[in-house]
Amino acid sequence: MKTAKRWAPVLSACTLAVTMALVGCSKDAEQAQGANAQQAQPTPVGVIVAQPQSVENVVAMTGRTSAYEISEVRPQASGVILKRLFTEGSYVRRGQALYEIDDRTNRASVDNYKAAERRAQANLNALRVTEGRYRQLVGTNAVSKQEYDDAVAQVRLAEADLAAARASLKDAQINLGYSTVRAPISGQTGRSSVTAGALVSASQADPLVTIRQLDPIYVDITQSSAELLRLRQGLKDGNLDRSNNTKVKLKLEDGSTYPIEGNLAFSDASVDPETGSVTLRAVFSNPNQLLLPGMFATAEVVQGIVPNAFLVPQVALARTPTGQAQVMVVNAQNKVETRIVETSGLKDQQWIVTKGLKTGDKIIVEGVAKVKEGQDVKPSPYQPKADNANPAQAGAGQTSGAATGAAQKPDAQPNSQTQPKPQSQGEAATPAKQNAQTEQPATSNT
Fold first, then answer.
1. Crossing angle (nearest 10°) for helices 389-418 and 420-445
2. Could you tell me which residue, 93 or 348, shows the higher pLDDT?
3. Per-residue model confidence (pLDDT) at position 277
4. pLDDT value at 183 more than 70
């Protein structure tokens, strides 16, 4: 009896181990059957049907803004600045007075030339009277023909002197007008380089102020000569059709799109030898002066139309290690095929595919990562996800919930650590009592 009691726990443990092994084997068999069943079922994928269409070849090029008109205002008369007649940074109109220069010297010159003009006029009048008298006397031979000819010549010389005096007076009046420096164009003023009391000279090197016209405004775009050659070669070979669309879209430095479309003004006829690029210029309306000279921008220009092209979402196209573009398509047997394709840019976040696809090809867009060459699939029309905000919010909610749970766990742990202490002492005391009780019968038996 004692031997049977000793071996009873061992037999129970062996029986439990055998039972667990049998259960594990049955679970492995069920998982293997489930995997085989999953492999036997075709993988569902979302596809789009390739349809050829004419696509605008939009080229994105970098550029910088520049003022439509720019004028560096310099004085045309020498003197001391008496006043500055505008506010720095303000908008001025053409002809508006900007500076007032001391004009006393120029005004004295005008008075001097006015006197010279009057003197020449008086001399001419006297000579004309003399010439009139000689004309009457020469008919009666009272004066010689030579004297009359000299009187006529003197009148003509006096007329020339009067004309010269009037020209000098006009020049002096122009210089007097230069004493007031006026705006040659309408636009935005910059910082004034001089103040009242400064001495300036005619045609000096440093401008008094710079005026820029900002509405409209230019955007100077640079395109590499290699891209220009490819464009012209494509037009020559018929791969591109010539586009009459001269509209230009602009993306600003912060990634936003400028709300007003511009027009392509001209393309330079020469290549910059230092940069190897050609400059294109676009004109944009700038009523709110959002664009300022010198800003960096990206211009999207339509340079031709690609006929019989296919638009493929970016997620459906991958690159091989050698850089070739490829897409996954579903053939007539619902098996996956890999196609090497050629692209010619992007349009609305989709690749423009020019070669490698045929009309009616089923391009895999959803589930590309789950399939491979030759695998059986179950194609269905691809449905783009219209609202991607909810999954993000759900994920954020799960993350915040996990974070909240994680934050609550430390509060729960101290309670679990402090409460079990009496229980552990009680548990430790209970076996001691049981040992004492078991020892007492043993002593009584002995």
1. 40
2. 93
3. 84
4. yes
User: Across-strand partners of 257?
Assistant: 251
Find all residues with CB under 8 Å of 439, minimum gap 6, and list them: none
User: What's phi and psi for 350, nearest 5 deg?
Assistant: -130, 145
Q: What angle do CA 385, 387, 391 make, to 5 degrees?
A: 95
Domain CATH for 187: 2.40.50.100
Alpha carbons 232 and 246: distance in angstroms, whole number: 17
Cβ within 8 Å of residue 349, ≥6 positions away: 313, 314
My answer on whether 82 and 199 are in the same domain is yes
For residue 193, the tally of other CB atoms under 10 A from its CB is 13
Q: Are strands 43-49 and 377-381 parallel, antiparallel or unpaired?
A: parallel
Side chain identity at residue 334, one-letter code:
N
206-252 pLDDT, tens digit per residue, is: 999 999 999 999 999 888 877 777 766 666 666 555 655 578 889 99
Q: What is the mean pLDDT of residues 20-30?
A: 54
Structure confidence at residue 13 (pLDDT): 59
Q: Contact, 223 vs 278, CB < 8 A?
A: yes
Q: Residue 307 and residue 241: Cα distance in Å, rounded?
A: 7
CA-CA distance, 26 to 48, in Å (whole number)?
43
Q: 237 phi and psi, to 5 degrees?
A: -80, -10
Which residues on neighbouring strands pair with residue 319, listed in sequence order? 325
What is the average pLDDT score of the chain? 78
Model confidence, pTM: 0.60
- What is the spatial distance between Cα 281 and Cα 268, in angstroms, rounded to a whole number? 8
Task: Count CB atoms within 10 A of the CB of residue 157.
Answer: 13
Q: Which amino acid is at 180?
A: T
Final residue in a domain of this structure, among 381, 408, 438: 381
**359 domain-assigned:** yes
Is residue 388 over pLDDT 70? Answer: no
What is the rounded distance in angstroms from the CA atom of residue 170 to the CA atom of residue 151? 29
Domain that holds residue 107: 103-178
Q: What is the DSSP letter of 290?
A: -
